[in-house]
Amino acid sequence: MAATWTGYITFGLISIPIELTPAARSERISFNQIHSVCHTRLKQPLFCPSCDKFVDRSEVQKGYEYEKDQYLLFTKDELEEIEPDSAKTMEILSFVKVDEIDPVYFESSYYAKPGEAGVRAYNLLLDAMRKTGYAGIAKVTMHNRENIVIIRARENGFTLHTMFYKNEIRASDAAVPNKPEVSAAEANLAIQLIESLAAPFDPSQYSDTYQQELEKLIEAKAHGKKLTVVPRGKIEPVADLMAALKQSLKTKDESAKRGVIRAVPKAGEKKSRKTA
User: Fold this and answer.
1) In order along the chain (276 residues), what is the average pLDDT of each group of 10 residues?
2) Gap between the Cα atoms of 160 and 92, Å rounded
3) Rounded to whole angstroms, how far apart are CA atoms 164 and 218?
4) Per-residue pLDDT tens digits for 150-184
5) Entry pTM
6) How far is the C-alpha of 191 from the C-alpha of 189, rounded, in Å?
7) Domain segments of the chain: what residues?
8) Residue 46 and which of 2, 61, 200, 235 are 20 to 30 A apart at CA?
9) How far is CA 207 from CA 75, 202, 203, 221, 248, in A?
């Protein structure tokens, strides 16, 4: 995979050549826009209404609208001239404990691979950060933006996460109004239910059910078949909280005896479909 960014991590007077590659990407089925009349795929070419013609990408320039329909134009060289040092150098500004960072700040993830000349220094820093339990905070410029990043030491190397800035985090409006009182018995049952569902994190057990259903729908449609969809169960707000907690625990216990891993369905969980 081609590197997203190449440059140096600096740690005091130590500089380590690295390259970043994306650590994850979304896997999803994408649809094209089709003209419903003739079933032709619609395209979105670059079109200039003033010249009344389609434009080649070689004629495209970046512009900033400072007033209505008035633009300041910028060349690639002009934009590169103002790039900060973080365009090529990722200086570690401080070290923090990862669990002190609210996950809401995390954005995208990257793997950091050392250049041949920096392998020894890379492993020195990696080992020291693993032993101390600290992660590094740095800045790096990518995609016309200076990002704050957290550098985490993992068993097989560094992983970097770009982070949102403080002003980009939206204030939560999810506060519970007039927090109601819950009884000690209800609280204890809720804790028991949580503990009964507790397990080590294993990402391999999770999958995108919607994408799987899309694949089934595409396969069925390609062969002129139709999926028989089982209606979803109706979800209602819980009227008797204590009764619901007791029933949830009872269902979990009965399932455990039968060897079922998870019998309590998630809210809104879809049932399987069959092809007719």
Assistant:
1) 89 90 83 81 81 86 88 86 88 92 92 93 94 94 89 94 91 68 86 86 80 84 82 76 85 72 44 52
2) 12
3) 37
4) 999 999 999 999 999 999 988 877 665 667 788 88
5) 0.69
6) 5
7) 5-24+81-167, 209-275
8) 2
9) 44, 11, 8, 23, 24
In the structure encoding, which two tokens stand for residue 92, read together? 């570690």
Is residue 30 helix, strand or coil?
coil
What contacts 138, CB < 8 A, 6 or more positions away?
9, 86, 90, 91, 92, 93, 148, 149, 151
SS (H, E, C) 83-95: CCHHHCEEEEEEE
**Single-letter amino acid code for the residue at 276:** A
Fold of 5-24+81-167: Ku70; Chain: A; Domain 2 (2.40.290)
Kindly write down the DSSP assignment for every residue of 8-38, as one continuous string: EEEETTEEEEEEEEES----------B-TTT
- Joined tokens for residue 183: 């009884």
